[in-house]
Amino acid sequence: MPAKIPATVVTGFLGAGKTTLIRHLLENANGKRIALIINEFGDLGVDGDLLKGCGDETCSDDDIFELSNGCICCTVAEDFIPTMEALLARDNAPDHIVIETSGLALPQPLVRAFQWPQISTRVTVDGVVTVVDGKAVAEGRFAANIAAVDAQRKADDNLDHDTPLAELFEDQIAAADMIVVNKSDLLGEAETDALVTQLGQDARAGVHVVRSTMGRLPIEVVLGQGAEAEANMEGRDEGHHHHHHDDDDDDDDHDHDHHDHDDFESFVVERAEITDPAAFAEQVAGVIRAHDILRLKGFVAVAGKPMRLALQAVGPRVDTYYDQPFGAAPRLTRLVVIGQTGLDRAAIADALAA
Questions:
Q1: Is the dihedral angle over the CA atoms 12, 13, 17, 23 positive or is it negative?
Q2: Residue 16 and residue 137: Cα distance in Å, rounded?
Q3: Lowest mean pLDDT among 15-24, 85-94, 184-193, 229-238
Q4: Phi, psi of 210 (to 5 degrees)
Q5: Comparing 5-253 with 264-353, is the CATH topology the same?
Q6: Model confidence pLDDT, tens digit, residues 200-256
Q7: In the chain, where are the structural domains located?
């Protein structure tokens, strides 16, 4: 029987740097043919667009599959399994498959899907890589269970220590075979060391915690872990979501986790070209602070510039860089706004268009 194709699941919270890490893997694939399956929460395929056209014959646009019908952990039968079957049926099978989950996805249902008979004999989970935004976690924005953060947060009487965001974070840590503390350059050395130590204590035994800047890790570190995670689910299961699994169930009765995405919403804002990227980044940061937006990402048209400006923001921190020419695409600024339910869409759109 041919060896199973390894698949790496890259998970992590909104804005942690999953796409940046994957793009670095593609640019340094060293001839390894990598296929991508990308699942985004939002109405604009920003992550997929950022990964296309990486300039290497080993990662053509035909090797990128985007799932946009819902969060991958909730649409295993409808989207993920058929996509995997189509990918595995190709004549030019990939050497490795990388799956980027939505920032709001539970990785556990996806890992269990590799037990499904349609794909179980042909592919295995090489490892689950959970990417953490070190700066955001250190600021206490996305997690409530990190001891290094608790000391500075306990004074806040309004803090809810059992939020859906904290639960998602805990589930992604529980599933990990490797935890990447990204954006470590934004932290002091002692702060990074404390976070790495705490995450190692929170994770399962034997999980490696590594630090990175801009997702720059050697491909041989991220790929090739040989975890066979689908056959080793002990300790990976969610602590907050009840699910029922029966190997004898029909596909229509597949594992459903009670993972309510109604707690979150996303929408797209369009506006005309801007003239001052630095001023616009400040404007975006102000809108995020004013409306408690979790994540904002998209592409910006800058007057007089042929290249589009990629913009990604997590919390009030905004990162921008020019990624590729607009070409024949309309010169519009299009941004996806993601937050917890109840965002004032009209006010946010007006503020971004001002």
A1: positive
A2: 10
A3: 229-238
A4: -120, 160
A5: no
A6: 999 998 898 989 998 888 888 899 888 999 998 888 865 555 444 444 444 444 444
A7: 5-253, 264-353
Cβ-contact 123, 4 below 8 angstroms: yes
Nearest CA-CA partner of 99 in 64, 68, 69, 131: 64
Which percentage of the chain shows pLDDT scores above 90?
Answer: 34
CATH of domain 5-253: 3.40.50.300
CATH for 264-353 is 3.30.1220.10
